[in-house]
Design goal:
Layout: H1 2-39, H2 51-69, H3 74-79, H4 84-92, H5 110-120, H6 122-125, H7 172-178, H8 180-215
Biased composition (Basic residues): 200-216
Region (Disordered): 196-216
GO biological process, one term: RNA processing
Length: 216
């Protein structure tokens, strides 16, 4: 009985080994399929694409290549350092940090030039105010750095110090011409200067005649 039991056990073991050998190629095939399916997204199957799809794909690749051309690497940034002249020009665009980076204007219109000239003559325009003596108006040059701002009045000053909209002008010259007092004062000063020049002219003419008569 013992021999029969051992023989039957051996047969059972052999059958189990055979069945495992038959199942192992199936498992291998499944693992290979899983690996191949994981690699499928990275493979370009151009053979199955139509002509329209291929054209779209080429356009996308060209667009990506042109986009990558504009991207600068760290090596490009380090290699291209600005020259001394470029740094000087960049520095001259503003007056500096002490003046809060006031910029140099690119273009100056005639109205702005006129307003700057009137600022130089502010001592003459208002006789009741005394300003610090500036540069001679005959030699006055336009400043390199300046900015023009707009005064924004608060809501609390609506009735106390608000300028009516009709009186607001775009330039200094328009404001002066709109003010009657300033125009009257300027006319009076002009007439005084003209009369003094005429008197001096007559005196000089008489002195010149006297000198001529003496020479004769």
């Amino acid at each position: 009985m013992k021999g029969l039991a051992e023989a039957s056990l051996d047969e059972l073991f052999q059958q189990a080994i055979q069945s495992l050998d038959q199942e192992s190629p199936l498992v291998k095939d499944e693992s290979e399929q899983i690996q191949s399916s994981s690699l499928l997204p990275s493979i370009k199957l151009e053979s199955g694409l139509s002509a329209k799809d291929k054209k779209k794909q080429s356009e996308v690749t060209d667009l990506a290549a042109s986009h990558n051309k504009g991207i600068k690497t760290a090596r490009d940034l380090v290699a291209k350092k600005p020259s001394l002249n470029e740094r000087r020009k960049e520095k001259e665009k503003t007056i500096g940090s002490k003046w809060f980076g006031m910029k140099r204007p690119d273009h100056i219109s005639d109205n702005v030039k006129r307003d700057l000239h009137l600022l130089k003559l502010r001592n003459v325009l208002d006789p009741k105010r005394f300003y610090k003596k500036g540069v001679d108006h005959k030699r006055a040059e336009i400043p390199k750095y300046f900015e023009i701002g707009t005064i924004v009045q608060g809501n609390a000053e609506f009735y106390s110090s608000r300028i009516p909209r009709k009186q607001v002008k775009s330039t200094f010259a328009e404001e002066i011409l709109a003010s009657r007092d300033s125009v009257k004062y300027l006319k009076r000063r002009f007439n005084e200067i003209q009369t003094s020049n005429q008197k001096n002219g007559r005196k000089n003419y008489k002195n010149a005649q006297k000198l001529r008569n003496k020479k004769k």
